[in-house]
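Late entry, adenosine-5'-triphosphate complex.
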Amino acid sequence: MEIIAFVNNKGGVGKTTCSKLMAEYLSKTKNLKTLCIDFDPQCNFSHQYLQMEIDPAAPEGLIPPIHPDYDPHDPNDSDWDGRSSIAEIFYGQGVVPYPTYIQYLDISPGHAEKLLSAESVRRSEVVEKVHKQLANFLNSPDVRAAYDVVVIDTAPSKGPLTISVMKASTHIIIPSVMEEQPVQGIYGMLQLWMQESLAREKSRPLQLVGILPNMFKQTRLHRDILTSLQDNSAIGKYVLPVKFSQRIVFAEVDAADSNPRSIFDFQEQHVAKSEAMEVCSYISERIFA
Ligand SMILES: Nc1ncnc2c1ncn2[C@@H]1O[C@H](COP(=O)(O)OP(=O)(O)OP(=O)(O)O)[C@@H](O)[C@H]1O
Ligand SMILES: [Mg+2]
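Prediction complete; structure with ligand written out below:
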C-alpha cells in the first residue's frame, strides 16, 4: 500500500487541490481503492466529498457528518456518537472511513478541534501520542486489506501533525507556487524530509517524488523562479518535469454544485483534464513503477 502525502508549510500553494486531483486520478482512472485522509484542521479536503457540519462545541471548526453506517438503535453502536474523523487515532477510537460519490474513493475526514488539540500536545508526550499514531493506523491489517493507496492532505504547518504524516508516508510531493514566499516553504519541507530519511530504516525509505509547480502562469516571475529552482545544484533534481497551470476550472470544481464534480469527468479534449492526466499519470508511474 503506497501512502502519498502533499506537504508544504506555506498556505494556499495547492496541497488540497493536488491531493484531490491525485486521489481522483487513482480511483477513477486506475480503479485503485483509495483512502483520502484530511489531516488539516481546516477540513478543506473533507468538504470536497462530505457535507461537513459546524461543531456546536467550537463554532469556528468543522466536524464530520453522521456516518451512513451508524444506527442509533444498534446496541453495537451504543458507545459511538456516529461521527468518525481521522483524529480518532489520537483518542484510541476506531476510524471508520466514509464512502463518497466516487466508487473507489473513501475519506477519513478531519475534525477541527480534535486535530488542533493533537497539534498542541506537550513536547514530552508528542512522540508517543501524536508522531506514531498515523503510521500505526495505516499499518493496521484492516486498512492494508481495504486499500491500495492512501492520499493525505496536510495543514500548512511543520508541527506534530505534519511530522506524523512524514513518519507514516511512503512518498511525499511538495506543491509550490513559483513565487518567493511559497518557494521558501520548499526548503523547510526538504529539511523535514532529510531528517525523517535519516531516522528511517533503509528498507522503508521516505521517497520524495518531487517539487510540483502549481498555479503556473507564463509570466516572467513564474518562469524566472522555476528556472532558478531547476538550475539550483541542491534542489534542481527534485523539480518535477510536469506542472499544473493556473486554471480557473481547478478552483471551480470545488464548488458543491459543480457539474461535473471531477476534472476526470470532463470531456477527453478538455485542456484541464489533459493536464491533470499528464501530471497525475507521471506521478503515478513514478510511484507505482
Ligand atoms: N492550478 C490551479 N489553478 C487555479 N486555482 C488553483 C489551482 N490550484 C489551487 N487553486 C486554488 O487556490 C486556492 C488554494 O489552493 P489549495 O486550497 O489547494 O491550497 P492549500 O495548499 O491546500 O492551502 P492551505 O495551506 O490553506 O491548506 C484554492 O482556492 C484552489 O481552488
Ligand atoms: Mg489545504
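The pocket of adenosine-5'-triphosphate (ligand 1) is lined by residues 11-17, 40, 42, 44, 156, 214-215, 244, 246-247, 250-251, 254 (CB under 6 Å). Will revisit in the morning.
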